[in-house]
């Protein structure tokens, strides 16, 4: 069996509008101006407490995290699937992979369990992923804990697994776990930041060939 682990925000779904809006709410809750959009997108993938600390050193980070979560949950409830739309070709790629008897799918995300469960429900992805690793139960990326847990839950060896993501945190996490990494070029970090990527995908139509090339080595 082989395991394909996806990052979520910036890889499977484009959630930047709600991320930026919720971060503005978080900063407003402690009386601070929000950072620039690009600075906010630069920390996507980190667990929220770590992300807040990276954006502002001296603030009530716990209050900011709660304000962010509350805002994001409200946006998701009001907007449904449009809160975090799937990137073009993402659903078709997931369906193709799930249909293969020798491939298992998983996710490793900085989202909370509540956030990931809501997204999966909104997009009708229940039953798609055999392992779901979220920020609630692990150190923040790039610590390899999420990937180690995904391997243990799926029973797949590291050499038969791959991490797919859009940020340097994903790349570093995969490297720390000893797992191959495929980058995507449509996410929140530029491809030049994805050190060690075996390939950079320009769209989901390239995923199958990239996986075949990876496992042919």
Write a structural description.
By secondary structure, the chain is of the alpha/beta class. The chain has nine helices and six strands, in the order βαααααβαβαβαββα. The protein has helices at residues 16-29, 37-42, 48-55, 61-79, 90-98, 113-122, 145-154, 168-177, 207-216, and strands at residues 2-6, 103-108, 131-133, 161-165, 181-184, 199-201. It has a six-stranded parallel beta sheet, sandwiched between helices. It starts with a strand and ends with a helix.
List segments where confidence is low: pLDDT < 50 over at least 5 consecutive residues: none
Radius of gyration: 17 Å
Number of strands: 6
Question: Count the helices. How many?
Answer: 9
Helicity range: 40-55%
Q: How large is the share of residues in beta strands? A: 5-15%
Strand order across the largest sheet: 3-2-1-4-5-6
Q: Tell me, briefly, the overall form.
A: globular
Helix/strand structural class? alpha/beta
For this structure, the quaternary state is: single chain
- In N-to-C order, the SSE pattern is EHHHHHEHEHEHEEH
Distance between the termini: 16 Å
